[in-house]
Structure formats: C-alpha cells, structure tokens
C-alpha cells in the first residue's frame, strides 16, 4: 500500500481549495443542523417511514434551520435474511429494494432525493468505509477504467465492526477512480450530505478520507462531509490533520439516552476547543467537532434492530443540559427522534432561538473552569452582538449553587439574562449565583458589563 506524502496531501488540499472557491455559494459556515434516522430506526428504516419523518421536518424544524434529512446505516442491505448488500454493475451500493421501493429500475435514491428537495430540505446518506465484499465477490468493473474491484480492495483492512466493508488502495490508479464513480452516483441522486463511517478515530483511514473529499469536489455537487465514529484519544491529532478536508467529525462514541454517555462529553470536547478546532477551516468553509445525534423524543435503543418504541430515558434537566452543551460547543445539531411523534417539550428544546443563535453565531467557545472534582463546569463564548455567553453545568449527583465571578471576564457588574427562559434576571455585582439541579444547566448572557 502506498503512503501519502505530505506533498500529495497538500496537493489534494490545494485542489479542494480551488474547487471550493467555485462552490462558495454553498459554503459551510455554521454547524450543520438536521435529522438523522439512526436513534429512532437503527438500520431498519423504510422509505415510507423516512418520508413520513421528512414531511414533519419540513413543517416543524426546517424553519429553525434543521435542513438535512439523513438516512443512516445499511440502507443498501435487505431486511430479509441473509441481509444481502445490494450493488450495481460497478460495485457501488444501491438502496435495498425491499425497503426503498422507488429505487428499482436503476433509479437509486433519486426519487427520494427529489421528494426531499421539493420540501426545501437537503438529502443525506450514510456510507461505509471503502468498498464492499459484495463488489469484491463480483469483481465488479470500476467505471471508466480497465480495473476491477479486486485490484483495489484491501482485504486485510476491513472495518472491525462490519467486515463486509474494507479500505480501498488509493495508490492504485483504480482507487481514486472508484471514489469518483461513487460520488458521481451520489450527485446524480441529489445527495447533499455524506456521513462516512468506520473511517475515523480507531478506524482511521486517512488516504481514503482524502480520496473521498477529492471525489466530492470533482463530482460538481456541494456535499457536507462528515466522519464517524469517534471516542478515541488519537482523534484530536487526526482532526488537526484532516479538518480542512471535512465539515464535521465525531469526537465521541455512539451517544444514547443515558447519563453516562452524556456526561462523558464534558471531558471529550474541551481539548478540541483548546486546540482551536471549533469552527476551524473545513471543506468549502468550516469544520466542527461532532458530539453525535440528540437522542431525544421517541427513539429506539442501541443494537435493538428495531424502530422507535420508547421515550428518551434522559430527564428533562439532562435533555436541556445536552442541548446546551452541544450549542455552546458549536456541535452540529442532528435530532434523532421519530418526528412523527414530535412532542411540544422536545420541539421547544430544539427550537429555542437564543440557544440556536449560540450554536450558529457565537465564537471563542471554550470551557472556562471545572470545579468540585469536575462536578461543576462553566463554558463561555462571545455572542454575535458583543455579549458574553456563559453556561453553568452541574454534572454531579446532588443539587448545587454555582457561582460565576465577573472578575473572570475582567468586569465587576453585568446585566444577566436567562437565555432558556428568555427573561432578564437583573444587574449583579461581583458574582452571579444560581441553583442548578442535578445533571442540570443554566444558560445566560452578560451585557452592559462594567
């Protein structure tokens, strides 16, 4: 296998930058926001279920910027055993016809993509690492070349948790051609968002990331490029290297509706802020560390292989804490619940304009302090109108009064506003203290500071 040289790496980056300039009208300047099917449907979502969700998304969430509608994991795999991976004549995954009924006769996801676009939404799909065993077994030809799947498949570099997928040898001339054919197909379907799995953190395949990013540029259709999974210490260094080629990358393992998963993010994200990676340069704009989907509302459970069947197990305080951390850390906001059962409480969490403005427009986002053996945390950011934003978190197991000292921002007096409740709390001098419930949060703006 060839090793990417620094010259080749930066040549690719230059190529991406040139094409990105041409696509500036579609630049990614804020954390992507939308819906992803995985938390509610795991891998078993059908076309009817997906379209039912996007109908609600267009009405209830699109006005608040939730524009991407992403089909996650294994859309190419039959529901019926033996769960065959469906490929076309060029070895490219295509939708499973037993779930995606409009995809037959070579139409792929184009009918679904067209439906999504007519609603004003953008269409996204999940893809796996490289090339499939099905393509290798068929020794499929690579579009536009004399090469075949077995010429480029690295059968010794398989995805550890889905070994039917493996890396592509991009030092072979057929390798980049294969990626180019993939993304040309996705562009013909109207894909706007790609979540590329089994390629980051402990599954890192740098040259395949470069090849996919290049292929997105060459396909002529702007696509947000997202990497997964996360949750490994080495990904900070990986992110520092590849962030110019992507728009978002997971920094945690799968986040589900339990406090342990949620709490872990308080230790995961601060180093990315310290390293200046929140809103760093990215493909055709900026890039953002991704804290994973929001498992709120009506959802499924990990490894259940079932559709949605329960309400989130997070308490209301924990749910508010999650949305607050995601927003002040400028994570992409990807709702995971079944929108056909979207309730008023969950909708209020997802659409608070003060909170969404922080996710969109704040800057210099970082953890200011950690106290009480890590049970008390404070994040801080600059608001778009010059205000200071602070988020107080009680991640301990008892209620607590948290205090913010204005000396931390070299001020003595500030006017404080509660951003979740959208009410002014008045002027405070020296310090500002609030009772914060177990696993709870408070989100405030500081203005007129002296």
Protein model, in words:
The chain has 14 helices and 22 strands. The chain has a nine-stranded mixed sheet with strand order 10-11-9-8-7-3-2-1-14. The longest helix is centred in the first third of the chain and has 17 residues.
Strand neighbour order, sheet with most strands: 10-11-9-8-7-3-2-1-14
Calculate Rg over CA atoms: 22 Å
Number of helices: 14
Structural class: alpha/beta
List the defining traits of the structure above.
single chain; elongated; disordered N terminus; alpha/beta; 14 helices; 450 residues; six-stranded antiparallel beta sheet
Summarize the model shown.
The protein is α/β, with parallel strands linked by helices and 450 residues long. It has 14 helices and 22 strands. Strand 8 (224-227), helix 9 (235-242) and strand 9 (248-250) form a beta-alpha-beta unit.
Question: Any chance you could write out the topology, listing elements then pairs?
Answer:
Layout: H1 6-22, E1 33-36, H2 38-41, H3 47-61, E2 68-71, H4 110-118, E3 122-127, E4 131-132, H5 133-138, H6 149-152, E5 153-159, E6 162-168, H7 173-189, E7 191-196, H8 206-219, E8 224-227, H9 235-242, E9 248-250, H10 259-268, H11 270-274, E10 280-282, E11 285-290, E12 298-299, E13 310-311, H12 316-328, E14 333-335, H13 344-351, H14 353-361, E15 363-371, E16 376-382, E17 388-394, E18 400-405, E19 413-418, E20 423-429, E21 431-436, E22 440-447
Parallel strand pairs: 1-2, 1-14, 2-3, 3-7, 7-8, 8-9, 9-11
Antiparallel strand pairs: 4-6, 5-6, 10-11, 12-13, 15-16, 16-17, 17-22, 18-21, 19-20, 19-22
């Amino acid at each position: 296998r060839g090793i990417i040289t620094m010259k080749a790496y930066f040549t690719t980056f230059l190529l991406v930058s040139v094409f990105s300039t041409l696509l500036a009208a579609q630049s990614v300047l804020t954390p992507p926001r939308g819906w992803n099917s995985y938390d509610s449907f795991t891998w078993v979502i059908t076309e009817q279920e997906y379209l039912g969700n996007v109908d609600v998304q267009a009405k209830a969430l699109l006005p608040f910027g939730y524009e991407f509608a992403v089909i996650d994991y294994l859309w190419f795999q039959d529901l019926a055993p033996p769960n065959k991976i469906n490929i076309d004549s060029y070895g490219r995954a295509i939708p499973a016809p037993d779930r995606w009924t409009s995809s037959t006769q070579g139409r792929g996801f184009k009918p679904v993509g067209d439906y999504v676009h007519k609603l004003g939404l953008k269409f996204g799909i999940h893809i796996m690492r490289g090339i499939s065993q099905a393509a290798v077994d068929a020794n499929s030809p690579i579009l536009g070349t004399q090469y075949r799947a077995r010429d480029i498949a690295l059968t010794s570099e398989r995805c550890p948790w889905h070994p039917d997928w493996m890396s592509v040898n991009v030092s072979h001339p057929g390798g980049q051609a294969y990626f180019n054919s993939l993304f040309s197909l996705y562009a013909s379907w109207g894909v706007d968002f790609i979540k590329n799995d089994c390629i980051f953190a402990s599954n890192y395949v740098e040259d395949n990331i470069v090849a996919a990013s290049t292929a997105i540029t060459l396909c002529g259709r702007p696509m947000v490029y997202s990497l997964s999974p996360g949750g490994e210490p080495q990904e900070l260094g990986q992110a520092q290297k590849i962030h110019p080629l992507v728009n978002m990358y997971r920094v945690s393992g799968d986040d589900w509706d339990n406090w342990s998963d949620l709490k872990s993010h308080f230790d995961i994200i601060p180093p990315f802020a310290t390293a200046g990676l929140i809103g760093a340069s990215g493909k055709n704009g900026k890039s953002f560390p991704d804290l994973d989907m929001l498992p709120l509302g009506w959802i499924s459970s990990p490894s259940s292989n079932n559709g949605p069947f329960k309400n989130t197990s997070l308490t209301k305080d924990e749910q508010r804490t999650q949305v607050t951390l995601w927003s002040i850390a400028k994570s992409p906001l990807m709702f995971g619940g079944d929108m056909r059962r979207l309730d008023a409480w969950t909708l209020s969490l997802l659409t608070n304009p003060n909170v969404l403005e922080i996710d969109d427009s704040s800057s210099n986002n970082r953890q200011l302090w950690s106290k009480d053996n890590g049970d008390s945390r404070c994040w801080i950011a600059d608001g778009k109108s010059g205000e200071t934003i602070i988020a107080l978190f009680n991640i301990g197991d008892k209620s607590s009064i948290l205090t913010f000292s204005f000396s931390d921002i070299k001020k003595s007096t500030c006017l404080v506003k509660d951003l979740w409740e959208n009410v002014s709390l008045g002027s405070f001098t020296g310090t500002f203290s609030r009772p914060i419930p177990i696993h709870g949060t408070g989100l405030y703006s500081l203005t007129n500071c002296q």
